[in-house]
Amino acid sequence: DIADQNRLAVGGYSYGGFLTNWLITQTTRFKAALSGAGQMEHVSSWGTVYMPTFIASLLGGFPWEVADKYRQESPMYHLSRVRTPTHIVTGDKDEQAKPSQSFMLERALYYLEIPVQLLIFPNEGHGLSKNPWSGKIKVREELKWLHKYTNQSL
């Protein structure tokens, strides 16, 4: 009785964005999702991030050593289960979670006909800290998304 099950939302940024991307492939209980700078596909992440050893240690080896694990634990390969309207944000200069990961999520949800919105912040890195308006716009748009899909007042 703590949470209204008809208004549940999930969201996170960076690793929290990855967890959000994973959760929406595992359950339909959320009415809305907010994904910020989250990974979608581990092999491409491993190949493009500045800390590939982090992904390798997280998954127990390199892509060629534990290929099945990279596939099993990548949200990309479970997207057919998603039903959650998802709002995505990324900085176009993000070196920690490449914008291409967010592009993949947006494209897949579009083709799956799941409500989706991708907000790309120009000249922003992972922390969206270059322009003080970026964080304000991010929160404003996320609140609008939550209001639209969970009927919560602003």
TrEMBL record:
Membrane-spanning intervals of the chain: none
Alphabetized InterPro entries for the sequence: AB_hydrolase_fold, Peptidase_S9_cat
Keywords: Hydrolase
GO molecular function, one term: serine-type endopeptidase activity
UniProt-listed Gene3D superfamilies: alpha/beta hydrolase (3.40.50.1820)
Ranges where the Peptidase S9 prolyl oligopeptidase catalytic domain occurs: 2-152
GO biological process, one term: proteolysis
Pfam name, any one: Peptidase_S9
Keyword Cytoplasm: no
Superkingdom: Eukaryota
Entry keyword annotation includes Hydrolase: yes
PANTHER family, A to Z: DIPEPTIDYL PEPTIDASE FAMILY MEMBER 6 (PTHR42776:SF27), SERINE PEPTIDASE S9 FAMILY MEMBER (PTHR42776)
Name of the protein in its database record: Peptidase S9 prolyl oligopeptidase catalytic domain-containing protein
